[in-house]
Amino acid sequence: MRQTFIRALLAAAAIVPAAGCISMEKDAAAPATRAALAAAVSNPLRTPANVARDPYRHPAETLAFFGVGPDDTVVEVWPGGGWYTEILAPYLAGGGGRLYAAAPDWGIGGIKKMKEANAPVYGGVLTADFPAFDANTTRVPEGIADVVLTFRNVHNWRMGYRRDDKKDYAPEAFRQIYAMLKPGGILGIVDHRLPETASAERERTSGYIKTSTVLALADQAGFELVGTSEINANPKDTTDWPNGVWTLPPTLALKDQDRAKYVAIGESDRMTLKFRKPR
Questions:
Q1: What region, left, alpha or beta, does residue 252 occupy, with left being phi > 0 and alpha being psi -120 to 50 degrees?
Q2: CATH number of the domain bearing residue 250
Q3: How confident is the prediction along the chain (279 residues), in pLDDT tens digits per residue?
Q4: Which of 61, 68, 222, 226 is surrounded by the fewest CB atoms within 10 Å?
Q5: Which residues are bridge partners to 190 per DSSP?
């Protein structure tokens, strides 16, 4: 690993306005794109519980920062229950784009339910296995994606989440993402941010991950850093909670214990990083 290069990337990522949104690169979305994103976020078909989280997840601003165009081919890696899928699917369908939902079999059930419940809106969402360890599984074709997005997942790969051997498979995940993208394609990452001064072991237990770790993984796979943003930052999050990041909303792992305290803190402090596959 080129440690001096990683230190330079980390220093660049740290140069962020205290209350601003953009560092290193301006918002990549044109006014028409921003209007289309705003319309997708305002879609009345969105689940009310998902809409309630907008103040923490800033979907329109985040997708604009990543420069997601309505005619793009987008891969959403590990979409979970479809929080972002509710926005991306109608947005891309309206502009002639395509959306892949890429996850293991155990993680794609929420998207399949969405497709069955509302085929006119979500029926066009394509599904694929990720990360694909079996040659016989359905993968996202190589070199097809304009944008790959993943929200709060890199820490899971680092922890070996849902793998019997619990080995860190983040490097392989980044390698497969790199293969999906066209030359010049964008990788957008949002994840729970662990302070650089914290013990590296906490990446294996807390649900948080260091920005330097993500930068190193991306660099190892061949990506170049394009920009960083503080759109999803939360300075109230000290990251040292008894049940890790799951202590905070929306999980609230401690249930009613100090509930008001954690609700007042809000969701986690998050890095927002934009990478490019070199042309």
A1: left
A2: 3.40.50.150
A3: 445 445 545 554 443 333 334 455 556 778 888 999 999 999 999 999 999 999 999 999 999 999 999 999 999 999 999 999 999 999 999 999 999 999 998 999 999 999 999 999 999 999 999 999 887 889 999 999 999 999 999 999 999 887 777 789 999 999 999 999 999 999 999 999 999 999 999 999 999 999 999 999 999 999 999 999 999 999 999 999 999 999 999 999 999 999 999 999 999 999 999 999 999
A4: 222
A5: 151, 272
- Which amino acid belongs to residue 277? K
Token pair recorded at residue 205: 């237990």
Contact criterion met (CB below 8 Å) for 212 and 176:
no
CA 232 to chain centre: 11
Residue type, 6: I
Strands (DSSP E) found in 50-160: 73-77, 98-102, 126-128, 145-151
Neighbours of 149 (CB within 10 A): 25
Q: The whole model's pTM is what?
A: 0.91
Question: What would the two tokens of residue 113 be?
Answer: 């339910």
- Residue among 96, 91, 43, 103 nearest 66 (CA): 91
Strands 224-229 and 22-23: antiparallel
Structural domain count of the chain: 1
**CA dihedral sign of residues 219, 163, 137, 121:** negative
